[in-house]
Queue: 4 jobs
Job 1
Amino acid sequence: MEKRSAELAVPIEDEGDLLRITPLGAGREVGRSCLLLQYKGKTVMLDCGLHAGREGMNSLPFLDTVGPETVDLLLVTHFHIDHAAAVPYYLEKTPFRGRTFMTRPTKGVFRWLATDYIRVTNTSNSDSTALYTEADLISAHAKIEEIDVHQQIEVSGIKFTAFNAGHVLGAAMFLIEIAGVKVL
């Protein structure tokens, strides 16, 4: 019996035709959840959390691997620190100018958890390692847009719909569509 090669070479004519999914955090670790989805010149970031076992800049996802000005959307799945606590840093301390979406419950609870992160970080260390201030959080919180479950939104040719993820109150999984390609 002849053995077939499992490898199928498909020539790449246009790099934009490749769907790239890159973990900027939470790849082989728990914490600092952050995934980058790139396709057809569009870039979506899923979550922007902190690593609970690290401090300051070391707790952030590897955000320096992609220019924040190239990110079209930031979609946050839920309010846990490892999924959302770096959002104020990203919105206020980088050149990111895209749009940010969370469900209403996620946005509400996120505000309280991020406030607690600031308080704990500022009181537990003699030299604060907080990545942002209460003023940064207030400014970032005002920029976050709400999405309802089953609501479809289109931004710059990217369609996305939030579905109930069942993890915690307001947790969402996002169905993202770019140029006819769908990713959940």
Job 2
Amino acid sequence: LSESGIPQLVQLMIWDYATDIDVEGKVQLIEKYRRCGFSKVWFASAFKGATGVNQSLTLIGHHLRNQLEWLQVASRIPADILEGIALTGWQRYDHFSVLCELLPVAIPSLAVCLQTLKNGGYSEQVKENVEKLLGMSYLEIDTFMR
């Protein structure tokens, strides 16, 4: 990779939507790519559409935990290497699959994920901010929103 010149032409994006990311493995992977000459890396998480091919409602807690895992990875690498986090929201698994988790039902998840990333973690204050921003009286994290 170093000799190909590719590291000067592209930035890598590491995708993982799990709630139990192998943090140490990701840190080692990033270090490996740094040694090859890649100076920047992106992370890709999800706020919806990554939990089941026919999922209709968004489970906020799953996506929240994914953001928290990525924040752990970010805290263990040099700050100058992370270019950003692409917060994805998949509409379907492939072009032949049914639509899943339409955007309106996922707005609370998007808000929680964005606020968590912006604040570097999740807290009661983040939850209250999201409730206020969305005009909600109670935000459900670990059960499906009603």
Job 3
Amino acid sequence: ASSNTEILSISDPATLASVLTVGVKNTIGDCRVKVTYEPEYVPAVPPPVPDIPAEHLAAMIKATVKVEVLDDNIAYLKIQHIIGEEMAQKVGPLLLEYIWDKVLPTSAMILDFCSAISGELSGIPYIVSYYTDAEPLIHIDSVYDRPSDITTELWSMPTLLGKRYGTSKPLIILTSKNTLGVAEDVAYCLK
């Protein structure tokens, strides 16, 4: 890529974006990558979490999470949406009761992100921290947002609601071509 100086002479931003898209796709082998030129781009601001009773929020979350204990004491946790920090704080105790307390005593876990297509960036440290030690803190990721020119540093959390699953039990992470966005990042960070 550094030796291909021909692209530097492309003056049309849309054409340059198209050429870069082809180059990046061929280089990294990910057909989902796309470079765009959007001079009027305004980043979307996520809507605030509505004031819904915690029980209703927990029911919504349970609809996007499947939990069971398989033979040989193996937990199976299928997550379709990764909740963010604000939601986790609202429904944390209910999540512990309905989901986490069931999988915590197992001897291994299958974490299924095959259908995870949505999530919130602030949820990454929550999930990853349950599979790390409390100390030392671990740098999980750095996420750069070009429009705002802000880099967000994500670190493991020293304290969590409930106990950690730990680092000594086997953890199997399932992904597919349908694993997108935040779930993709969580899978990569846990790897």
Job 4
Amino acid sequence: QDAIDRKEKRSETFKTAVHGLETGTSALKAEELGRRAPQWVRDNLVTMCMRCKEPFNAIMRRRHHCRACGYVVCARCSDYKAELQYDGNRLNRVCQECYIFLTGHVVLEDREGKHKGILEKGAAEISGRSLLCSSLQLLDKNGKGGTRGWFVIPQDDPLVLYIYAAPQDVRAHTSIPLLGYQVKDLPQSDSRHLFQLVQSRQVYTFVADTEELKQRWMRAMARSAAGITLSEEEDEDADS
């Protein structure tokens, strides 16, 4: 009975996971799994395994695609084979979740009970329910270099800025609690659209691709910093 319960739980988890990937990826419905070829998530959209969340690197962790759901996964998480109807019922490399869903077999290793950490929010998942999300650059302390990534303020956690290395990573690189920060506009420098988050001695400097995007981020961050949890549209509806 325990094995049956785990299998059913994993099946429900998979149905949730395959629903609504962002960035142009057409997600399969659960009933289509194995019957229709998936659209693969592009390698350059992820920096970590979309199942176990371990980062990829050139030496230890190669990228593989699950032939059932199209996720980018590591070798350990794709060390399974299942018959896929769209490929003439031939055995194909699949991820652990798809293997369980397609075969009904229970894998002894159970990571499903692990508590989701604060950073373990999938970028694609929360981008679809965000107050604002886009690519930005976060400069280092001397302002000469920095990291470009995918930045999200989710609707269900509107006082926190989540920073991902890529727009379909399943775990955030870091997060910044926005409450209490001041948003500071900076003059354009070398065609760069700059603004800052400032609180006491802590300063974050961001670069947006356009002036319009910069202004949108400044408004969104200022609202979160002030503790306003509604989107601008919802706020306007409430006022009316």
